[in-house]
Amino acid sequence: MRLTDIRTALDELQMRPTKSLGQNFLHDQNLARAIAAAAVPDRAAFAVEIGPGLGSLTAPLLERCDRLLLIEKDARLAEWLRGKFPADRVEILCTDAIDFDWRPLLQHGPFPLAGNLPYYATSPILRNWLTPCSPVNRAVFAVQDEFAARLAAGPGGPDYSALTVRTQRVWTVHRERSLPPSVFHPAPGVDSALVLLERRTPREFPPVRAVFFDDLVQRGFSQRRKQLKSLLKADATAWTSWCAGQSLPPTCRAENLSVAQWIDLARTLDPAAATPAQHDGEQFDVVDENDHVIATRPRTEVHGKSLLHRAVHILVFNQQGGLLLQKRSAWKDREPSKWDSSAAGHLEPGETYEGGAIRETEEELGIRPKLTPLGKIRACSNTGQEFVEVFTAQHEGPFILPPAEIEDALFLPLEEIQTWLTARPQDFAPGFWEVWKKLRVER
Ligand code: SAM
User: Fold this and answer.
1) Residue nearest to atom 12 of ligand 1 (CA)
2) Residue 120 pLDDT
């Protein structure tokens, strides 16, 4: 949109830009096209724009996507946009992007996110949308320059902060270009910059528990001038040896550690990080067509020869009836990064289905709820030749997820799982398809 178009639109709406909503509208069309191209370099089936305002970015974004979801807090603007864009391709939600529930968007698969963000809300918007298991795979934002510098900073400088480390664990951040105040109406009192965030590839860093990592980093940066050794109350010998292994002085501060070193530190301190993705040398009971044990064989042989064996799946529900889904870690040798039952695993030799379910629930979720049998699934190719007994439980969390096994977990209403599973079965482990069928038959 040109400046005259923005003025005309504001006159039509009989409104003045609202400062408290960060309304500074972009009127440089070349820049708008460049932002859209950075957000959606190749054509996308679906994308989301936060804070579309009068639609300066929306028009060039729509040229690059089949469908666009706009999230605008100001009802006057949301209504105005409805008359400007085709309803069959553009959905407009008048709501707050800070606490927007993006879980129903998982059914679209990974998608790009763009926005000339309201500066008062940049931080909480990023916190909501850029979590490890959100469906966003790429994000381009116009933000306050100072904020862009913090997002993109490297170790050692004053801009390197908890925000930097927490963001860069999951995203690579590039500060693309400066945006002078003159490209906005009204011109803001500060400089802006365009940042591009690209989701890191799944095994770029070793697995780490997000809650533990974020908390550790927050504590580390809470008093920047203080040495980490005393801030984290670290055991002196263990600390000296960890620092030596990382070629860091034992007197180091939070800002001296790279993102990779923060990850290593979290993995060293978090007991849940000790659980491996799979246990080498595991043995499983092999069973016949009637699920009677006939032998015990190593895991590799059971899987390599597709021998029939046993497993349990546990479905944990919360009080609202939501089902906890786990995202399998990228480090699993079978079905990495797929969504699956709340907890699942093989039986150990001689173990009963119930015993296996109690153990797996505790190992994978850190809880010991009452388990109720739901039913049994015959071994088939979808279950990986496993006979599966399914159990249900109720629990509200919190859960302690071993990061080498589980990347993340979230509760979802059953209807949303059904929609997602129908739209994108490839996002789920095939064993879960069978468990889901069983659940729908039994409940
Ligand atoms: N994208 C437009 C442009 O580039 O001209 C407008 C950008 S303006 C900086 C920020 C926009 O975000 C405004 O339209 C404002 O009403 C909207 N907004 C402010 N707070 C919001 C929130 N919490 N959730 C969603 N939209 C918000």
Assistant:
1) 51
2) 95
Q: Which atom of ligand 1 is nearest to the CA of 52?
A: 1
Expressed in angstroms and rounded, the spacing between residue 77 Cα and the centre of ligand 1 is 9
Cα dist from 4 to 9, 19, 408, whole Å: 9, 20, 48
Please calculate the CA angle 382-344-279 and round it to the nearest 5 degrees. 100
Task: Supply the residue whose CA is at minimum distance from atom 17 of ligand 1.
Answer: 51
Q: Where do the domains of the chain lie?
A: 3-199, 210-274, 283-442
Q: Which residue's C-alpha comes closest to atom 19 of ligand 1? A: 21
DSSP run (H or E) holding 196: strand 192-199
Q: Write down the pLDDT at residue 280.
A: 73
Determine the CATH number of domain 3-199: 3.40.50.150
Distance from Cα 5 to the centre of ligand 1, integer Å: 17
- Furthest-apart CA pair in the chain: how many Å? 81
Superfamily of domain 283-442: Nucleoside Triphosphate Pyrophosphohydrolase (3.90.79.10)
Q: Of 207, 201, 123, 202, which Cα lies nearest the Cα of 167? A: 123
pLDDT in tens, 265-324: 999 999 999 888 887 789 999 999 999 999 999 999 999 999 999 999 999 999 999 999
Superfamily of structural domain 210-274: rRNA adenine dimethylase, C-terminal domain (1.10.8.100)
Query: Tokens 């504001």 correspond to what residue?
Result: 10
CA distance 306 to 310: 12
Q: Is the pLDDT of residue 117 over 80?
A: yes
pLDDT at 162: 97
- CB-based contact 278:330 (threshold 8 Å): no
Mutate to test the pocket of ligand 1, among 19, 25, 81, 144 (most ligand atoms within 8 A of CB): 25
What does pTM read for this prediction?
0.95
Structure confidence at residue 236 (pLDDT): 87
CB of 5 closer than 6 A to ligand 1? no
Q: Is 266 in the pocket of ligand 1 (CB under 6 A)?
A: no
